[in-house]
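Morning!

This is the sequence you dropped in the shared folder:
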Amino acid sequence: MSRKLPLADGETCRTACARALIRSGVDEKTGEVLTCAALAERVGWCADLVAGMTGALLDGHWNTSDVDTLAGGQDPGGRKLPSNAWMALRRLGWTVSCEVKVNDRIVRMAQEQAGRALRSVKWRADLVAGVLAVWPEDPNKRTGEEWDAVRAAIPGGEHLPSSVIRSRTRQITSFERNHGRRPVDVFELEPTPRVARMLLLAACDGQQAAIERSAIEPTKALLRLQLPTRPSPQTYRDWTWVECSITLPPTVPANAVIHLPTLRIAGGKVRADLAYTHPVPKIQRTGHTVALGVDWGLNTLLSTGAARLHDEGQITDLGAGAQFRAAGVLAKQYRLRRISERLHAKTDHYDRLADPSLDSRAATLAEEVGRVSAGRA
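The structure's back. Tokens below.
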């Protein structure tokens, strides 16, 4: 299937993402039907292998020198680094080994995930470096000159909200209070990031994964990928092809070209973040006749309305507009917060009493606090 989207005159392409649920799969080697739980287990084994290699890459390159090298965009020979993170890491010679048997495409996914994390930390590294370079006399209250100096020391600092600089200042102050000195850079201030358990199949080719949209049922797609049959595969025989049928969400147009998704485990199920490209009309700078107005307020979070400009210059509204009110959601949050405060007050009271006969009640309260906290998340 061609991944090139045919476009007509006056059209351009747009890439979007939709979420889908993979409910089952079929092992091509044995013909075994994999239930939702069995499929999630095998995807989880593969995600654990990728996460382990990603963590090793981040541990080895979580420093200013390597991040600056990657962000510089050139390899040691002066050639431009590829836009794909895994290709850029390979050009720099940053690879990782695995104690179990995995194919090269599994390593690609680990390099892609690590490369994205290393590229994203560059902005935070420059921000912290700028704040440290012009440290104020009083971190709690900068003078006007100190604000100008810190903004000049940060790339794009003139457009940066003051709250971002203040939060980083408080973070550095907390580090200094705990360690008796200020951090050298953001990599001392922040630990190596936690690695998410996911499979970035976009970094793979047909030797690891492939996806095809059904010609008979446009709302269906078939994903084929190699998954391990055990947590620690020792040979390539411990990897088999698995077919997974995906029901495409209604937001995916029938003429869209779908791409390899990102797989995640959530709630014991396999979720797929499916990217797709579809044709849309080109945006014109002039000649628009329909406009959408959006306003926000205290009582109504968002209010929107559409208007049309007619040929004679008259402007009319289209329909009654729309509103988004968060009162219901906020009311639930306020109620759960009040309940949580009362439960914590009771728990603290039991702790002060230190009565062994109240341990069972304290345990019950602790369970209830956990349930309320889960509802607030």
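Headline: The chain has a mean pLDDT of 91.

More detail when I'm at my desk.
O.
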